[in-house]
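idk why but the lab printer keeps eating my pages so im just putting this in chat instead. protein + zinc ion:
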Amino acid sequence: MQFYIEYKAKLEGLPVVYINPKDTSSLCPICGGRLASNGYRLLKCEKCRYENDRDITACLNLLRMRGAPLPPKALYDPQIIEVRGKG
Ligand SMILES: [Zn+2]
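predcted complex ->
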């Protein structure tokens, strides 16, 4: 997967940067507080009431770690991602 993403990014002239994913799914991308899980995909910050899907939260934290602006829609409009098994 990483090879393919890097390959496609290079074709488009986009840089690829590897980042340590530590804490990207456990810290709030807005205030840095600890996130609590609902036992499934949803994470919630007890400090600022941020709430979102864990994968989207991880992506927002990766952007924040790179100093990139965070998309307001992703921050304040929780996206629920449904994952379906094969079959
Ligand atoms: Zn927060």
